[in-house]
């Protein structure tokens, strides 16, 4: 497998996970840079060109509330889960846990077969 193929597969794998990570991180209000920093500290590296369009899309879908706040000498747009976003996060978390358990079982079986 080439590096380009691997990169493409990694991107596909990460795409859905990023939505879940952003929703989970926005249980508390963040502006874009502080959200990116929190995700990075949690081990999820996301570039601005991916994060900001994702935040805007989630807000347009009614999953995030936003407001402008004065902070550190300038206004910043802060985002936080809306009620709808919190409900979706609960549902997606349940789905993630079920998929993760099933995948863990499958990957464990594959590892045992290859041993």
Q: What features would you describe in this structure?
A:
The protein is of the alpha+beta class. It has one domain (3-109): Orthogonal Bundle (Arc Repressor Mutant, subunit A). Helix content is 68%, strand content 16%. It contains four helices and three strands; from the N terminus they run αβααββα. Strands 1-3-2 form a three-stranded antiparallel sheet. Strand 2 (64-71) and strand 3 (74-81) form a beta hairpin.
Going by CATH, what is the homologous superfamily? Answer: Winged helix-like DNA-binding domain superfamily/Winged helix DNA-binding domain
Under the CATH scheme, which architecture would be assigned? Orthogonal Bundle
How are strands sequenced across the largest beta sheet?
Answer: 1-3-2
Low-pLDDT stretches = none
Q: Please tell me what the overall shape is.
A: globular
* Count of helix runs: 4
CATH class categorisation = Mainly Alpha
Please write the string of helix (H) and strand (E) elements.
HEHHEEH
- Number of domain modules: 1
- What is the alpha-carbon Rg in Å? 17 Å
User: Strand share of the residues?
Assistant: 15-25%
Q: How would you classify the helix and strand content by structural class?
A: alpha+beta
Average pLDDT confidence is 93
* Major beta-sheet overview: 3 strands, antiparallel
Distance between the termini: 22 Å
Examine the coordinates and then state which fold CATH places here, giving the name of the CATH topology.
Arc Repressor Mutant, subunit A
> How many strands?
3
Helix content: 55-70%
